[in-house]
Design a protein that fits this description.
2 copies of one chain form a homodimer.
Chain A (H helix, E strand, L loop, with lengths): L7 E3 L2 E3 L6 E5 L7 H14 L3 E5 L3 H13 L4 E5 L4 H8 L4 E4 L7 H14 L3 E6 L5 H9 L4 H22 L5 E6 L3 H14 L4 E3 L7 H17 L5 E2 L7 H14 L8 E4 L10 H17 L8 E5 L5 H4 L5 E5 L5 E5 L2 E6 L1 H13 L1
Helix pairs in contact in A: 1-2, 1-9, 2-3, 3-4, 5-6, 6-7, 7-8, 8-9, 10-12
Chain lengths: ~350, ~350
């Protein structure tokens, strides 16, 4: 059961419990380079990204933003850190939301100006608290008072975010989503659970600096899995040391794993045995990647189940209920079968091409 | 806080809340092939595996088991499915535990014989329920009565496991661990949470048929993350369509992600930008893999933090607190630094060799 939250639009994307959990990423191009940033935004949109953040630090970024927002396929969130005036300019330049770090943007007058600006533009604010920019003394004081380190950080994350939400509410801003991030899985999960219980703001889930795709995706899945299964989380970004497109693929995998996004077609692959003469794992990965790209482009297929089997002894028979299947043969060739009946032989390339054409049908 | 459970030994590995969460895998060799199975068991042990399952279906497996248990570096769990008499023979052949599938091994007299056998050998039983071998009619009846499909399956998993535990208890077996597995993340998590609340048996966590390493690891992390963070789970196997060694690496990553295993040395890598002239992601992955293999072999290092940075502009400075760091240079070379001070230039191969020698120190 999804946790009930406020609901509002961020550009064309609904945020909150009335809408599906959305996928975000962040450009790693210089925002001042409109051409490179737009190219990356198009890649992100093709991969299945729905919202992207861009850093906005200086006037050159603002100049480029006017062109970027006009041509971007995705609504943009302006990431504001030390130069808070950029928030006002980013709204004028057409950004669909502003991200403020409560550990950094604290000036009351500035918050008031930003509040007025987003209200007149009718756009939301993301309050994005980050463990790295919390006041250290307060955390240390709690630890000295016997509170475990991870609880102390989680409490301070919630406190920093909540205080900024209250300030913004006083100035009339109600369309707020909140992120509470740490590179530590335990801290992030504790902070999100605590905040979910405290408020009705939509939550933006993610870890900071999760790492490389292999390690970062596991960390993120471990952190977000339990939250999403409990209905907590309305939008998400998987931060990886990798291309932003990889972040989107990782987010899709996590949503599919939790049963929140349709994971069809299902891929069934045998665990392989001594009879396998082909590179079964490589072939299965290739087919997974083809399906991932196909689905990321927003296309849908009628295929419900695809089988990848090591050998023909049991292959077509065991995978009788698969709409489409592929199996190795004794001499390392492949056979393709449909509902258990062999329809053709193929080389690996031919087989992959055939799969693509069948997906498109 | 770890959920309190019964505690017992499985070979030399403690199972239960008094012991660390242990890592299991399962050989995909024919058990009758003692040479191949022993070779794989040695690989698994080197990777950090602590317990391995082997399938025991026929007398040829038993013959080989005598040699395998004598030479195996790991305690072995005999996986019993349709041929329940093999359980008795596997105990005689030196297995450290028996795994029974309650959906398949149901004969009361046979359970009584197995109970006597494990009691005399003083070894535990794993009751391993699997959604694929549950009675379909009971699940369908529940669904017709309005129970959501995933709850119906989770309840039946718990029911099947609990009933077998009760039977075994009647016959005097108390050292029981329980697995409740499905390929669906939601069902598996619901079943484990429910069973954890019902009993004090140690839980063996995992999904069945999780898939390829990339997808299966994400699914497993999403499922196990929330459970482990809540203190549920005493031993685990990550089922992958891949070499069993990959299952061990995936399990280690999940335990590290949840803060249950020491993840030191921490690897910090920058997200890269336009200044990066080297293959930062590839280099970071290489270093991660070196550390993974180093740790899997049971070695420990004094290094706490390792930095991998894209460029020398901020590299050594930003990673000042890293014990050891590596950074690209303008011409695509690498520099190595220690606590912020550059100590040498290196090619990629030299740098990786240097890292290995520093880890060993």
């Amino acid at each position: 059961m999804r946790r009930k939250t406020r609901n509002f639009m961020l550009g064309n994307v609904g945020i909150g419990s009335n809408y599906p959990v959305s996928i975000q990423s962040m450009c790693n191009t210089a925002t001042s380079d409109a051409v490179a940033t737009l190219a990356q935004l198009r890649q992100l949109a093709n991969a299945g990204c729905q919202i992207s953040r861009v850093s906005v630090d200086k006037d050159e970024d603002i100049t480029a933003l006017y062109r970027i927002t006009a041509e971007s396929p995705l609504p943009l969130v302006a990431d504001i850190q030390f130069n808070a005036e950029m928030a006002l300019k980013a709204v004028d330049a057409g950004c669909a939301a502003i991200r403020l770090n409560p550990g950094i943007v604290r000036d009351e007058n500035m918050l008031k100006s930003i509040a007025r600006k987003v209200i007149s533009a009718n756009i939301p604010i993301r309050v994005g608290a980050n463990a790295g920019s919390l006041p250290r003394q307060e955390i240390e004081r709690k630890i000295q008072n016997g509170i475990p380190r991870e609880d102390a950080i989680a409490e301070e994350l919630c406190h920093a975010a909540y205080r900024q939400c209250q300030t913004l509410e006083q100035y009339g801003v109600h369309n707020i989503k909140v992120a509470l991030k740490c590179s530590d899985v335990r801290v992030t999960v504790k902070a999100c659970r605590r905040f979910a219980g405290m408020t009705g703001y939509p939550l933006h889930l993610g870890l900071t600096e999760a790492g490389t795709p292999q390690r970062g995706t596991v960390k993120s899945a471990a952190a977000l899995g339990g939250l999403l299964l409990d209905g907590i989380g309305d939008t998400m970004r998987i931060s990886l040391t990798a291309s932003p497109v990889e972040e989107v693929f990782a987010a899709i995998k996590i949503l599919e794993a939790c049963g929140i996004r349709d994971a069809l077609p299902e891929i069934v692959s045998c665990p392989s045995c001594g009879r396998t003469e082909i590179d079964l794992f490589g072939l299965t990965c290739d087919i997974e990647n083809i399906i991932q790209e196909f689905k990321a482009s927003g296309k849908r297929t009628g295929l419900k189940k695809i089988a990848v089997m090591g050998c023909p002894v049991n292959g077509p028979g065991e995978a009788r209920d698969a709409d489409l299947g592929i199996s190795g043969t004794k001499n390392g060739e492949l056979i393709i079968f449909r509902n258990g009946t062999v329809i053709r032989k193929a080389t690996r390339d031919e087989a992959l091409q055939f799969f693509i054409s069948e997906l498109e049908k």
